[in-house]
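Re: the 325-residue chain
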Amino acid sequence: RDFVWLVHPRNAEDYIKKIPILKFFSEKTIFFITKHFWPFVVSTIYSEKKHIKGYVVVVPLVPEQIALNKKLAVKKTKQSLKLARKLGAKNISLGGFLTSIVYNNKLDKDFDFNFFDGTHLLTQLAFKKIKNILHEQNINYKNTSFSIIGATTKTGAMLSKILCHDNFDNLYFFGRTLKNLEDLKKECLEINKNANIQISTDLSGLANCDFVILSAYLKDETDVIKYFKNGIIFLSIVEPISPFVFDLEKERKDIKLIKGVFIETPGVSYEGYDFGLPKGNSFACVTEAIMLINNKEAGKSIVSDNLEESQKIVENLLSDYKFKV
């Protein structure tokens, strides 16, 4: 196989979709049972244009388990990479929290793969999505307050800098660690010294925001939904889609909700599991891998600090594969 996409389940429902008998157990029991599973293949991927084939391998830990037990998360991720090697993969696409597990623990140095996480492609496409929404809604971004929940994640930080580069002046950055937020604010002010940037670890500040961007999973979401102003725009760029987004859809009908930055990928098919994507669509991490496996020079350009160059390369790649947002 050309590549393996590593994923983890979001919740108990993801397990039950694949293993129906688990519906007879409590969530706590499901998580206890499945954490003893070895990584396993849940689906196959095929791209007609370049005849690229791949497997989807599950790391059997949900976000809470990954956050609470980093040692176990590293162990399971190593097992999944060994499985990918046995499957003959040369390239790895990382989904969800697995990006931070791999890079923070230098697993990309321990295993001889080309790694893709979709971050650079996703931030470029998210920025394009934001601009399109503003244009469609006839919104003046200079009079609009934007917030990023999870601003210090890899995706959140990159998008924060892109917004500053494009003179978005009224920004709120939310994260878990104040020091990281302070560092990000400093970097962004070096890009745009006129930006008005507020930082906070307290999500109640979302009450001041008109356009909210989600780039991290939320652990305790009960109060967060109450903080949003009426009629805001909410864009999720978390992959896979956070369960919080579905809760928000049910409880706040007044909010204009965009569930994700999906990419229309004709000719790309998934077999064996329903990932909840609109038909014919893919996530950025998989799309990036498909487009760059045989085009490493373009991959270097995507990560360039030159925003205009990166955007042009992304547009050319999408056009070549006939993909579109």
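The longest helix spans residues 119-136.
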